[in-house]
Amino acid sequence: MKNLQKNRIKTRHKILIGIFVVSILINIAAWFAKPLVSWYRLHVFPLWTNTLARVMSVFPFSVGEILIYCGVFLILLTVLLLIAFLLFRRGKIRKFCKSYFEFLLWVIAWVVMTETLNCFVLYHAPTVEEEYFDNRIYGKEELLLVYGELVSRSNELSLLMKRDAEGNVVYDGDMYAACKTAMQKLGETYPYLSGYYPNPKKIASSDFMSQQYLCGIFFPFTLEANYNTTMYIMNDAATICHEFSHLKGVILEDEANYFGFLACVQSEDVFLQYSGYLSVLNYVAREVKKTISSEELENLPKVNAWVAQDIVFLTEEAWQRVEEKAVVSTETANKATDQFLQSNLKANGVSDGMVSYSRVVRLLLDYYDGILWESREES
Fold first, then answer.
1. Domain locations in the chain?
2. Rounded distance, CA 31 to CA 114, Å?
C-alpha cells in the first residue's frame, strides 16, 4: 500500500515537472518561430476560447478577479505554513504543510501553462504591420492629416450623443452585442478575430482599478475580458473591443488599441464610433505636440466643448468618490501597476515597455494611408 502511494506521488511529481519543462520549451520556441506562433493563434488558440472562455461565461462575475484575491490569500497562507513547516519537524501540521505545498505547485503550474499558451507565446506572433501594411515612412504632414480627421470626426459625433441633464453621454443600446458584432466584422479582414466572443466582465474593484489608471484587463488563466465600470462611459466600447482583441490572441497593447479603434469606427453604431475616435485622439495629440512648434499648434483644429468634456478617464465626481474610499494612495497604486506592466512587457520582448501603447499612432498612419492621402490628392 505504501509503495502504491509512493508511486502515485512520484507520478504526480513527474507530471508537475513535465508541465514546467514543456512551458519553458514552448516559451523558448516562440521567440524563434513567428510563423508557428501565427499558425497557433489562428488554429489552436481558438480551441481555448471555445472551451475555457465559454465555461467562464456562465459566471456573471469575473472569475479571474476572485482568483486574484485567492492568490493574495495563498501567498499569505504560504508564508505562515512555511514558518510552521520549519518549526514542526514531525506530526500532522508538517504533513498538512507538505500536502499544501504540493497543491500550491499545481496552482503555479496551471498559471504558468495558461499564461504561456494564452499570453506569453502570443507576444511573438507577426505584427499587424508585418502582415497587412507596407513599411512606409510618414512625416509631419501625414500626422497632422490624421489628427485633423480625428478631431473633425470627434466633433461631429459629439453632437449626435444622447446626454443627461449634466451633459454626460448616456447609451440605451446593447453595448455588449454591438461590440461583439463590430469585432466579428473585423474578423472578415483579420481571420484570427473571427468566431465566438463571450460577454465582457465588470470588475467589482473598479475604484481600485481606477487608481491604477486601468480601463480594462485580460486574464489569460480564465480567458476573460474585463473592464472598469467606474470610468466615464465613453471609454467603455473601445475598452471592451480592446480586451476582446486580447481574447483573440492579440497581446501587443498598441495592436489591441488599434483594433479597439477600428472595430468601433467601422461599426454602424454612432456611440461606438465616437468611443473609437476618442480612444486614440490623445495618443495622436501627444505625437503632434512633439512634432510641431507652439505657433503651429495654435493653428490646428480644436476639439469642441463636448469632446473636451467626454475625453476623460473619470469624471470629477467619480475621482472624488474613489479618493475618499481609497485604502492606498492613487500614486502608490499607479506606480506599482506601472512597474508590473513595464516588467511584464519587457520580459516578453516589448523593449519599450508601456511606451508601446502609443505605437498605435503608427498603425493609424498605416490605416489612413490610401484614405486621407488619396482624398487630399483628389481635392
1. 2-124, 133-378
2. 17
